[in-house]
Amino acid sequence: MAKVYSILCRAEAVVAATFLVAMVGLIFLGGVARMAHYPLNWTTDLATCLFAWACFLCADIAWRKGDLMSIEILTARLPEAARRALTTCNLVIIAAFLIYVIGAGLRLSWISRFRSFQGIPDVSYSWVTMSLPVGAMLLLLTTLLKLKQLHRGVPAAERQPAQTV
User: Nearest to residue 27, comparing CAs of 52, 46, 49, 44?
Assistant: First the structure.
């Protein structure tokens, strides 16, 4: 299972990086084309779609690595048992929220399946809205792994999945 998760983490990082680079390239291409008096409006639309996906993928990568912003001025002064209880409570709240987001995102994707993306025929808006439940599923997996490590007694400094990219 650890090997599958490792492959998932690497694939997620490659896809996120590819989307970010493609997004910058598309915006640049659109700007150059506009200056050449041949506007390519679809470049901005596609970059918007890639941005939605990249946001959620990058959020999961940052969450997995522990690189999200946190304020520990109060929790650092708590005893270890209280810190563990507070961390558990926070992770459970985050997991519950992500479960809600998965359900709401799937519903949103379902109801927007017939809506065209930015007026482009035959491209469903669901391609963009699916970034929400897919990203939330990845974040939920990371959150559950953090909970598992916390309850296995892994020290706080080492509480990250074995594979970080």
Answer: 44
